[in-house]
UniProtKB/TrEMBL annotation:
This is FAD-dependent thymidylate synthase. The keyword Methyltransferase applies. Its EC number is 2.1.1.148. NCBIfam families: thyX (TIGR02170).
Length: 235
C-alpha cells in the first residue's frame, strides 16, 4: 500500500524510500568495519540500543519521500518540522526537503476542507489551544453551511479577478486560506519522520494533523518495522 486518503479530500502517498532496518545497523557498525547481510536478533538489539541511548545518526541513513495533500492549516504546522530539523547530534544544513505547489503559477480549481456537521469541536476548558468535545449537530450544520457560503464567495471573487486579467499571485488573495488544500513533497530521514510522529500522534495534537500522522505511520512502519517501533514506542 502506498496511498491513504485523509479527511474529505486529502491524502498521503509514499513516493519513494531508501534503505531498511539493515541499512541502519550497517551505518552504525561501519565504525568497526563490520557489515550484516541479514537482520538478526543481535541487529535488532543494536537498533534498540541506538534508539534508547539517543545515538540517532544511523537513523538518518534511510530516507522517505511522500506526496501530501492537506489543508493549509495542517501544512503550516507540518512545515516547522523542516525549519527546525537540525538534528541533535551535530550541526549543518537540514537533510529534509519540502516542495509545495504555488498559486503564483497554477490556477487549478481550488479545493477546501469543510468539516461535516458532526466534526466541529468546542474550545477546551483548561487550555488556550487545542479543542474539546464535539459540538451539537444543529450548530455544526450551521457552521458547515456558513463556511461553504464564505468559500463560495471567495472562489467567485478569485475567478472574477483571473477573468479580469489579474495575475494569479494576487488573485489568490481572495481565496479563504486556512482550509484550502495544498500539495507538497516531503523528503526526510527516518529520524525526522519519527520525531514528527512522536509529537503529532499525541492525544493533544490537532485532530486533523493526527489523522495525517496516522497515515504516515501506516505507510512507513512496514518499511522499517524494528526502527519505527523503537523510535516512537508502541503508538
Amino acid at each position: 500500500m502506498s496511498f491513504i486518503k485523509v479527511l474529505d479530500q486529502g491524502y498521503v502517498r509514499l513516493v519513494n524510500h531508501m534503505g531498511s532496518d539493515l541499512s541502519i545497523v550497517n551505518a552504525a557498525r561501519v565504525s568497526y568495519a563490520k557489515e550484516s547481510h541479514e537482520l538478526s536478533e543481535k541487529d535488532m538489539k543494536l537498533i534498540q540500543f541506538l534508539a534508547r541511548e539517543g545515538h540517532t545518526s544511523p537513523f538518518r541513513h534511510v530516507v522517505l519521500q511522500y506526496e501530501i495533500y492537506a489543508p493549509l492549516m495542517v501544512a503550516r504546522q507540518w512545515w516547522k518540522y523542516v525549519i527546525g530539523s537540525s538534528h541533535a547530534e551535530g550541526t549543518g544544513d537540514s537533510m529534509e526537503a519540502w516542495n509545495e505547489s504555488s498559486r503564483r503559477y497554477i490556477t487549478e480549481e481550488p479545493a477546501f476542507y469543510i468539516p461535516g456537521s458532526e466534526e466541529w469541536r468546542s474550545k477546551p476548558e483548561n487550555s488556550k489551544q487545542g479543542s474539546g468535545e464535539v459540538l451539537g449537530n444543529e450548530l455544526g450544520e450551521k457552521l458547515s453551511s456558513e463556511l461553504l457560503q464564505y468559500i463560495d464567495l471567495g472562489v467567485q471573487k478569485y475567478e472574477e479577478a483571473i477573468q479580469n486579467g489579474v495575475c494569479a499571485e494576487q488573485a489568490r488573495l481572495f481565496l479563504p486560506a486556512y482550509g484550502m488544500y495544498v500539495r507538497w513533497y516531503w523528503t526526510a530521514s527516518l529520524q525526522s519522520v519519527c520525531h514528527f510522529l512522536n509529537q503529532r500522534l499525541e492525544h493533544d495534537a490537532q485532530k486533523e494533523i493526527q489523522d495525517y500522522a496516522k497515515a504516515i505511520l501506516e505507510l512507513s512502519k512496514p518499511l522499517y518495522p524494528v526502527s519505527v517501533d523503537e523510535l516512537i514506542g508502541k503508538k
